[in-house]
Fold this sequence. Notes:
- By secondary structure, the protein is an alpha/beta fold.
- The chain is 34% helix and 24% strand.
- It has one domain: 3-Layer(aba) Sandwich (Rossmann fold).
- It has eight helices and nine strands.
- A five-stranded parallel sheet has the order 6-7-8-3-9, with helices on both faces. It has a four-stranded antiparallel sheet with strand order 2-1-4-5.
- Helix 3 runs parallel beside helix 5.
Amino acid sequence: MSLLSLKNISKRYLSDRGEWTEIVRISSFELNSGEQVLLQGESGSGKSTLLNMIAGIVTADTGEISLDGADMRLLRESARDAHRARSLGYVFQNFNLLDAYSCIENVELGMAFGGKTDVEFARKLLERVGLSERLNYRPDQLSQGQKQRVAIARALANRPKLVLADEPTGNLDPSNAAIALDLIQSLCRENGTALLLVSHNPSLRDKFERTIDLMELNEASVSPTETGGLS
């Protein structure tokens, strides 16, 4: 049984012109436990919308999104939030750290959504990503690369079955981008966590076991101008 299975999912939005535009239409996609998959997609190909549907942040209009045995589309909101907290980690392009909290507090808050906090594991994760001397620093005291490391540690905080990564190296310089990618992949392997990463960067292809062109997978095939910039 696949860890993640998508069947006949679709999503459309109302455009600025008052017309419905289909952003995502995928007939079939599967990802197995521990697998690392790269989805290549340009802006407007529906990559962020797809990840948000998998996470249950956005509800698909049709189809089935089975994550670790549960259909995210059919779960009630509270059950969906609880299942996401247990089974899923998310690395956002813009980090989404809470500025008023320290590094270790941001990771602990990620744990709290899953119903438990393990301070020692949070500390170990931050040490693993090279931030042992910055546990009590706030995000505004960190570089872009350091913020991304905190975001990676937070995504692994609940020992999820799957990590979603949305252009996780897009805001980093080449050196920090390489470090961040290596950390995401290494930590996922160490924890037996599957990884689904979306990026428009073609140089990442040789870093993954499987690479899929999202424009080919996504039968909607809309352009960036049609989506109003949706990614």
